[in-house]
Structures are given as C-alpha cells and as structure tokens.
Amino acid sequence: MKRSFRLSMAWLHTWAGVVIGSLLFIIFWMGSLSVFDREIDRWMMPDTRFHAPETIQLDGIADDITALAPGSPQWGITLPTERAPMGRIFYQDTSGTFQRKYANLETGTFIPDQGTRAGTGFLYPFHYSLHIRWKGVGYWLVGLAALAMMALLVTGVIIHSRIFIDFFTFRPKKKLPRSTLDLHNLSGVLFLPFHFMIAFSGLVIFMNIYFPQGPNLAYGDTDVPRSEFFADIYGRYSRDKAEAPGPEDTASLDAMLAQSEAAWDDTPASFVRVWHPGDANSYFEVRRSGARTVHYPRQVFYYDLASGDIINEYSDSSPAVHTQRFLSGMHFILYDHWVLRWFYFVAGIAGCVLIATGFVYWMETRRKKHEKMGLKGVRIVHGLTIGSVTGILVATLAFFVINRLLPLNTEFLGLSRAALEIAVFYLVWVATFAHAFFRPSRAWLEQTWVIAGLSVLAFVLNGLTTGDHLFRSISEGLWAVAGMDLMLLFSAVVAALMARRLQKKQTSEPVPIKQAAAAPSPAPRVPKPEVAHG
Amino acid sequence: MSALDRSVHVPDRPYMKRFFSSPAFGMVQRLVLALGGGYVLSASFVMLVGWGLAQLGMARGEAVVLSMMVGFLVFLGLILWAFAERTLVRLWVVFGGGSLVGIGLVQLVSASFAATP
Fold first, then answer.
1. What are the residues facing A303 on neighbouring strands?
2. Which residues in chain B are closer than 8 Å to A151, comparing Cβ atoms?
3. Do A147 and B63 touch (CB under 8 A)?
4. Phi-psi region at A391: left, alpha or beta (left = phi > 0; alpha = psi -120 to 50)
C-alpha cells in the first residue's frame, strides 16, 4: 500500500491501534480481572467468605429446591470449589424464568442474596460481551478487537527491527515519548506469545458465533446442520417427560455424583442437574470439571433418577475437538494452578500497559503537530483515550467502593442493589470521559490520584464493613479477601507513584512535549545531551 | 497527512469528485474489502474445507471444527495482505471476485444436497 511492505504494516499498526485501542484496553482490563473473578466475588459477597466444604450433601438440599419451585422443568447446581465455596443453584420457576440462589452445601442452608453481580456476573461478561446484548453486537465487537490484536502483534513484529535488543531496553529517565515507546516494546515483546495465544483462543472459544454457517455444507444433508454438528461435538441427550409422577424414593444424588467422580479418576464434577424433577422420566446429569487439565473437558453422565442406572454418557476424544477444548481451556484458565493464574494476571496487565503506552506514544508524538493544524478531533481522541484507560480503572474501583457502602436489600428508584452498583459503575465511567474532555491537560494526573484514593478507600471499607481486615483475613486463611485487599493497596501505591511522576513533568498549562521533558523539575538543571538533539 | 494536503491544494474541484479520487476513498475501499470481503472469503473457506475434509473421510464434526479454527488465521492473513498490496484493482479481483467464486461454490455444493434427497 505504501512505498514498502514495512511502511504499509507501520501504517496498519498505527491506525488499527488508534481506532481499536480503547476497546482493546477495556477487554484486556476486564479479562485481567476475570482471571481472579471468583476472588473478587468473595470480596464483594461477604457471606460467601468461608472455606470450601470437605464433603457436600446434595440429597438434603434437593428437597428444598424442589419445594422452592414445584413443577420446575429443571434445576442444577454448580458445585463448590476451593475458589467458590458455595453451591450456585439455578432453577426455572413456573413462569419459565431462571432464578439463582447460593447455598452452603455442607450444612444444606441457603445464603441470603448478596445483591451484587460482582466478578463472575458483571466484570467477566463485560470481558467477552461488553454487556451489549442487542443482536450479539458485543460479541462481534470483541471478535473484531481480537482479530485487530493479532494483526497488531504481527505488524508490530514486522515493523520492529531490533526485537532482541528491546527485550532488555527500558529507559524510564528519557523523554516521555522515548520511555513510553520502550515500555510499549518491552511489554509487547516479552508477552508476545501469550498475547497472541489469548487473542486467538478467544476467537476459537466463540467459533460458533463468528462462523455460524460453518457446518452448513459438511452437514448439508441433514435438516438442521447446526444442531447435528453440536450433537457431534458437544454430545446431546434428552428424554421427554412421562407426565406421570415418579417414585417416592429416588436414587441418591450423592451416590451418583460419587460414582461419576470415581469413573473420572477422582476428578471432581463441576455441575449437576435434575431434569423433570418429580416426573417418572426424571434424570440426573453430572459434568466433569476442568480442575486437573488445561483442556476444558466435555464429559457427561446421565442417570435415570428412579433406578440410578447410567442411561447415556459423552466424552470428547477426537483430536480437532480436543484441540479446540485445549485452546478454550488455556483461555478460560479454570484449572487449579496458582502460579499460572498469577502469570495470566501479570500478562493481562502487561497487555493493558502495552495498549495504553501505544496510545500515549501516538498522542504525545503528534500533539504539537495537531495543535498547529488546529484539529478539533484531537481533543475528542484525547478524551476518549483517558476515559477508556484511567476512566475504566476509576469506574471499576467505584464499583468496589459502592459494593461496600450499600447495605444489603437496598433499593432505590426501583433498582435492585445489584443494578445500583452497575449504575454507579457506568455513571462514574461517563463522568471520567466528561472530565477528560473538559480538563484535557490535567485529566491524566487527576484521575490517577482518584485511582490511588479509591483503592485505599475500598481497602479501608472492606475492613470496616465486614471486619475481615488484612490481619484477620490472613490469619484465617481467607486468601481471596487478603489477596484482593493487598492488590488494592498495591494499585494505590503504583497509582500514587505514577501521579507523582506525572506531576513533576506537568506544569499548570499544557507545554509542548519537548520543553516539558527538558524541565522535569522546577530546580534549574544542566541540560542532558539527549535533549539537545531530541 | 497527504490526504489533507491534496484536498487543500485543489479547492475548486467539486466535493464528490474530489472524494472519489482521494486517498481517503481508496482507504474506505481497502477497509470494506479487507473486512467484508475477507469475512466472506474466510467463511466460504470454512464451509468448503469443512465439507471437503468430510468428503475425504474425516469425521465431519472434526472437519468443521478444524476448518473453523484455521478460518480465523486465514482471515488474519487476508487482512494483513489487504493493507500490504499496493494496487486496489488486485484487491478488487481477489476479495470481490474471490467472494463471488466462494459464494458460487457454496451454492453449487448445497444445490447438490437439494438434488439428492
């Protein structure tokens, strides 16, 4: 397109980055948080801060659930794990809508509604759907961003001549654009394989959304190609209702669960479900968890509830499907591995740094030129960038803070507590965009200070409102809560250091970038040699 | 920006004509061809290769999953090429013409199912 292949790729790298960068940052930020979504849940749902039970009782609570929803077509439980110690129950009520409840499966008691969608219900779906449900637009935007991320990584490598040297190059004391570019290259090169894997596997997870027409020819001789395809790769079993009452004494759910887990070499099950409870044709579904394998398995047993006999089983074993599950599993990271979990988090945050520094570099190197040209759009791009980088951090922290401030069962303007938390998230986010637009020269600095302040506030509020302050959470081994509190403190320190640094560079008025870098502190300094030829 | 410079230097040409001969319009074409044409091409690839592998004896669930995963990489390659290729005509031939050929082949294969019930 341009004079040379490399110039063309540089052009694509710049503009794909500028156009998609905001979206990518949001996805990477929410994805990084999703690595610890269940830990965030524990922090935001104080009644679920307990240790995972050694043994669970399904038979006892089954009667309670059936009593909650007589005539329900199905109910199921996501079983407790070390990271999420409560059973997550869902059932369809008589009107057909799905209801959710948490329970302690050791004692068989329900846990009161915690009034929050927290990490797994809000932050994680944000990562893959942006909460835009209309016609699946959110999924497609995320897919476009993933594709752009891969294109950015490939073009980034192509336009890069010194990829090995950049492994070891970071010059924080240099002028802002130079040190920003160093950081961009460092985070980009160091985590290149991870970032490519995570973008590609993200697409592969949703392959049926992005290529819905895929099976149409291979399954062209069937009536509904898509459902035949799904039956092949996910397994399919269903049995209709008999419309006659089942026996009083059904087989033990706990026994069938134990039998399934024994068949999987003692790998725990992740999910159980009762179909047509109370009917003569009622049956019980048990799914294997991915706790022990990278590969996200699809292995299911179906039992006849009256007799306890296995009536169907599915296990994926073919190579291409297994590869798809392996790639999905690498992305989902549902397996138990704390070291890798932290690596994912660090690599995700490195992705955020990569994207943000790319943005800052683009803006700072062009600011003077743009000002001279009198382009109105620059201020908008600037505002959008700040709002989608520091702004979403501020909004996320506000989400944590409001979670610790609202009493349980709060309702306001007809909004439930969970909806109020989300409303605060969006209101604060919009406010950060407005702030960035109206105070362009100070917005980075001020929002960075707000991040530091809100982090400390969230930390303090957790101690005050739940009593699980750092000393108690550590001494009682509540690592999810302790980890979240420590991360809040850590981000407060990092944000404060960043703000101090920005403050030194910035005077009250926007200065052309070269002068600002030459006079980082009010004290007169001997100009360094690199300023002279910068 | 060369786009801006050029439009400043020829102020008397009518706006529409200026737009159609501008690099900006070239970029619009390139983007639409890369994303739209690229998607049609890769979706055709997924369908045809999935079908073809199944014809060669692969389990058809396997064939479709494999072609879907490779399809994303094909799409990526097409996008990168769309921004590397200098002449727009070649892009039109590959993305525009290729899409038509892809859709035609897909129709042809599905027509064979309708013929043999």
1. A284, A310
2. 76, 79-80
3. no
4. alpha
B-chain CB neighbours of A327 within 8 Å are 69
Those residues whose C-beta lies under 8 Å from the C-beta of residue A507, and which sit 6 or more positions away, are A516
Give the minimum alpha-carbon distance from B28 to chain A in angstroms, rounded to a whole number.
13
User: 3-state class of A245 per DSSP?
Assistant: strand
- Which residues are CB-contacts of B106 (< 8 A; sequence separation ≥ 6)? A216, A217, B44, B47, B48
Q: Is 60 exceeded by the pLDDT of residue A529?
A: no
Size of interface A-B (CB pairs under 8 A): 114
SS3 at position A275: strand
All residues of chain A having their beta carbon less than 8 Å from the beta carbon of residue B72 are 147, 200, 203-204, 207, 210
The mean pLDDT value of chain A amounts to: 86
- At residue A176, the pLDDT reads 66
Structural tokens at position A173: 């004391």
Looking at this protein, which amino acid is placed at residue B62? E
For A292, the token pair is: 């022990």
Letter string b/e over residues A293-308, b meaning 16 or more CB atoms within 10 A of that residue's CB: ebbbbbbbbbbbbbee
Identify the contact set of chain B against chain A, taking CB-CB distances under 8 A: 4, 30, 42-43, 46-48, 50-51, 53-54, 59-69, 71-73, 75-76, 79-80, 83-86, 106, 109-110, 113, 116
User: Which segments of A45-181 are extended strands (E)?
Assistant: 74-78, 87-92, 98-104, 109-111
Model pTM? 0.88
B-chain CB neighbours of A204 within 8 Å are: 68-69, 72
How many angstroms separate the Cα of A497 from the Cα of each of A107, A138, A492, B87?
47, 35, 9, 50
Q: Which member of A11, A147, A319 has the closest CB to residue B76?
A: A147
Disruptive mutation site among B28, B46, B65, B88 for chain A (greatest number of A CBs within 10 Å): B65
Looking at residue A94, its pLDDT comes to: 76
Angstrom distance (rounded) from CA A70 to CA A94: 7
Element (H, E) at A424: helix A417-438
Report CB contact under 8 Å: B80, A154: yes
CB A84, CB A41: distance < 8 Å: yes
C-alpha–C-alpha distance, residues A143 and A138, integer Å: 9
pLDDT tens-digit profile of A102-117? 999 988 889 998 989 9
Residue A99's DSSP bridge partners are: A91
Q: Which residues of B touch A217 (CB under 8 A)?
A: 47-48, 50-51, 106, 109-110
Contacts of B103 in chain A (CB under 8 A): none
CA distances for B73 relative to A103, A377, A478, B35, B100, angstroms = 44, 34, 43, 14, 21
